[in-house]
Amino acid sequence: MDPITLGIIVAIALIALMAIGTPIAFALGGVSLLALLYDRGLSELTYFGETFFDRIAEFGFVAIPMFILMGAAVASSPTGRDLYRSLDLWMGRLPGGLAVSNIGACSIFAALSGSSPATCAAIGKMGIPEMRTRGYPDGVAAGCIAAGGTLGILIPPSVTMIIYGISTETSIGRLFIAGVVPGFMLAGLFMIWTMIACKMAGGYNNPLAESAERLKQTVKHNVDTNLKALVRVLPFLGVVAGILFALYGGVATPSEAAGVGAFLCLALAILIYSMWQLGPIKLIMRDSLRESVMIMLVIATAEVFAYALSSMFITQTVAAAIADLEVNRWVLMGVINLFLLVAGFFLPPVAVIVMTAPILLPIIIAADFDPYWFAVILTINLEIGLITPPVGLNLFIIKGIAPDISLRDILMGSLPYALCMVLGILLLCLFPGIALWLPNLIMG
């Protein structure tokens, strides 16, 4: 059987397993095992185990559970509530100000947590009920949170950027800083669309009406409460700034910075919010362990899947076919973007990066594209997959937060933000300096 036909069969089997609800890691592992047994026989079982454990034994992956613990300490404390209150105070006067402040809260919370699901859940639990109470349409309320949550894998510190850096042997510090300007550019595009959507919907987005609401809150002394909330959030932002400084300044490795950041965020959550009981701390540890195990399982099985594809010469055949395309390099980039977009529809970002980044990187470099610029392009493509079916993790998180909002309304509210991301990719293609200017300025 030729590699392309075999690859199609493997892809169909993987999609079928996920369609019936098989967890991603088990679907990847099961298909890999069957493919290896078919191609090489029982002797391949030894390599299956070795590949599985060797991949996750890399020291660099220590940073992942540490950053997840850091995010869990923030997500499981009232930090998100305080951040939300503070931004609502300052941005509430804009047209659709409450929805805009939700996106701002998502942007900052993404930097604190590094996780899209955590960002989506933490801000959505507060933002969606409040927006619906004030008369915002369900689509706008759900869409802005679902889209804002995707920023968690782009704005540093980002777990997916760590995985990309280890998979491609590129600088994680440089990857982090390359995501800063594009991340806030996307947040700006999201805010612009939100204001347009709210203006089109009318009524409840009247700036004068919202100014009156702000005045009422001032009378009730809520401004003072919100300022105190901002003061409580500032130490966490200081930790993130310190981590980024340590990474960019060469003071610490990603694993060391992540460990210190996790300890400080956990300590701050306990001290600032008086979380002295064992229950909240157990919840933070449980959430961290659950997400860390899930990500590490996906990494390990994705590596086995990549090994299986490589051993059957599927990846080499596909890579050679892409590389042999006698087309303009931007047409090649368009084909790669389409491939990543489709992959993101069915697989989580971690799996896509582990399986595709090492294969695509030589093609990207041969076409004279910057690997750090490409990391941002890849990440935005995977962000689109988080708010589009059939997987659309953020869509289902929103559905869990607001079960009375139909999945159709959530999807229709999210699709314009997916178009904003496509616009972001086009802007990055036209102006690569959006991603490269800051890392070149800071790191040379």
TrEMBL record:
InterPro entries: DctM (IPR010656), TRAP_DctM (IPR004681). Signal peptide: none annotated. Residues 12-434 form the TRAP C4-dicarboxylate transport system permease DctM subunit domain. GO terms for cellular component: plasma membrane. Its main location: membrane. Keywords: Cell inner membrane, Cell membrane, Membrane, Transmembrane, Transmembrane helix, Transport. Part of the tripartite ATP-independent periplasmic (TRAP) transport system. Belongs to the TRAP transporter large permease family. NCBIfam families: dctM (TIGR00786). The complex comprises the extracytoplasmic solute receptor protein and the two transmembrane proteins. This is TRAP transporter large permease protein. It comes from Vreelandella nanhaiensis.
